[in-house]
Amino acid sequence: MPESGENVDTQYKFVELLPDLIKPEDYASDPEGRTVRFRILAGSNEIELLGDAMKPKFLEDILEELTPAVIEQMLCG
Questions:
Q1: Which of 26, 49, 50, 70 lies 20 to 30 Å from 13, alpha-carbon distance?
Q2: What are the E-state strand segments in the chain?
Q3: Which one, of 16, 21, 10, lies nearest residue 75 by Cα?
Q4: How far apart are CA 11 and CA 6, in angstroms?
Q5: Which of 1, 16, 20 is nearest to 67 (CA)?
Q6: Strands 70-74 and 11-15, sheet pairing
Q7: pTM of the predicted protein model
């Protein structure tokens, strides 16, 4: 496994649906949009990290530091 922050070729895979961890009421309570939420699921051979953020760039920066092989991302808007 690469060291954290090491240059790896992370692939982005766009998927149709991912669960929302940020709720509509969260936007009113954080007008600066700094909220980031995670859900961690541990399987027998892997760890799945689901993240959601008001500002996607924050989340992308965090996930890329973990040097994953694949980041699944949903297009929204």
A1: 26
A2: 11-15, 36-42, 47-53, 70-74
A3: 16
A4: 15
A5: 1
A6: parallel
A7: 0.76
Q: Please give the Cα distance from 32 to 11 (Å, whole number).
A: 29
Which residues of the chain are under the pLDDT cut of 70?
1-7, 77
Q: How many CA atoms lie within 13 A of 22 on its CB side?
A: 17
- Region of residue 37 (left: phi > 0; alpha: psi -120 to 50; beta: else): beta
The residue type found at 11 is Q
So what's the pLDDT on residue 9?
85
Tokens encoding 60 = 């992308």
Residue 60 main-chain phi, psi, to 5 deg: -60, -40
In whole angstroms, give the CA distance from residue 51 to residue 39.
6
Question: Using CA atoms, how far apart are residues 52 and 27, in angstroms rounded to an integer?
Answer: 13
